[in-house]
Amino acid sequence: NLKYRVNFGPDISSYRDGVYIDSASVRSNGINYASLAKNQKTSYTLDHLLYYNNTIGKHDFGLTLLGSWTQYNTEDNSIAANGIAFPSQKWNALTSSYISSADLTNYSSGLTKSQLQSYMARINYTYNDRYILTASARRDGASQLAQGHKYSWFPSAALAWRMSKEDWMANASWVNDLKLRFGVGVTGNSAIDAYA
Q1: 42: nearest Cα among 82, 76, 87, 10
Q2: Contact predicate 40/110, CB 8 Å
């Protein structure tokens, strides 16, 4: 029994904030002021999954393979200036045609990119629907980590006993599923800023 599945999840967000303060405003120091800030974030995750399952008598076998890619892009820019010639322009004419360099109070732009890449293999074995063994190995890479440390292995294993399938639990109508599980594994994280 072989199955293949692909998942694709995009995420797009955009932010735009314009501010105009007239010279007659109580917030003003007597000069027309305007600013514009824009931010756009795009990201996507692409997963390729391959499943294989087989049953031989009381033995159930399962294999899962995963290849996953995620990318993040963040672009932002801002500009602010005093001496806006016409109130009707607000923050829509912050160019050299209308604003002198002396009146520019702030301008900035930035682009941040990061990527994650993951590969995983997991094996499941079940005997008589009671005794379960799971073992997996995952290799993750993150672009924001230091050179030589971008990739790491994360193995794990688990044993489980489904006690509710035992004969001595057959009359326990108040239990639907009772399982004792022990697992061990290695974890990590890449929660640091890009270019840090």
Answers
A1: 10
A2: no
